[in-house]
Amino acid sequence: xxxxxxxxxxxxxxxxxxxxxxxxxxxxxxxxxxxxxxxxxxxxxxxxxxxxxxxxxxxxxxxxxxxxxxxxxxxxxxxxxxxxxxxxxxxxxxxxxxxxxxxxxxxxxxxxxxxxxxxxxxxxxxxxxxxxxxxxxxxxxxxxxxxxxxxxxxxxxxxxxxxxxxxxxxxxxxxxxxxxxxxxxxxxxxxxxxxxxxxxxxxxxxxxxxxxxxxxxxxxxxxxxxxxxxxxxxxxxxxxxxxxxxxxxxxxxxxxxxxxxxxxxxxxxxxxxxxxxxxxxxxxxxxxxxxxxxxxxxxxxxxxxxxxxxxxxxxxxxxxxxxxxxxxxxxx
Length: 332
Description:
Layout: H1 3-22, H2 42-48, H3 62-65, E1 72-76, H4 82-91, E2 96-101, H5 104-117, E3 122-126, E4 139-145, H6 154-164, E5 165-180, H7 184-187, H8 190-194, H9 203-213, E6 215-226, E7 234-244, E8 254-255, H10 259-273, E9 276-282, E10 285-291, H11 294-310, E11 311-312, E12 314-321, E13 324-331
Parallel strand pairs: 1-2, 1-4, 2-3, 4-5
Antiparallel strand pairs: 5-7, 6-7, 8-11, 9-10, 10-13, 12-13
């Protein structure tokens, strides 16, 4: 574990112990300077029985994600579990919410909150957000609340978020960004890093990192600027959205599926994404290559038959090429 990770772990382990004693950890060191739990309605909080002061975030990412029944959602750095439990309520029936956190003490608080809320479609996993303990294409939505800025290697986090998202998956996080450059001596401070200050990067850097990871339609909305006592520079809380390109990319294809059917179809395409070795797009055509196996062929043939029935305006073709199965989608 790096020095930065250890500093963050120690800080949030202490916060978890404070929560266990008083159900609150809200103070001036939280990412939000105007009070923890901001952005959540009383009805939302009542639905999971969590004190708003248990939130260490800088917004409400569940507002951004447009969660639907049947979807799978992952919260990076899930803390006391508020966003996971709210998400689990929203994706029921049929959906599931995961939370990843590296702090044993915080995981214990989250699991305790889950038991009190009687939420069964949620799972809290121990791990780091730089190496998410979930398989490829296993979720439809990735959320996070004032956590990615704490990571030393944000590009690794964003690559992992892209990896675990299925085709067409959504990235919707609340995070801190630097509006005016943070001095170098502040960036070297582990205390300032663990306190959501030193690790912030500019909007341009954040946008570039998302695009380099493969995300499209990146949008950053500043929600509040924050000036900190004794620190030059300006940071801000922001809502950040992006999307993983679906298999059909920019092809404008009509689809007759309902939302529930579309969610299930994404799950089925996600099941073969681990076998994909390349994907390319040019005007009017999307091509993908998969490692050939009887199971992958069977899944692809079934999916193509389904897509031909519901997706107008395209020709779907599959052919074998040595050890690869090549899929082409051509707009007609």
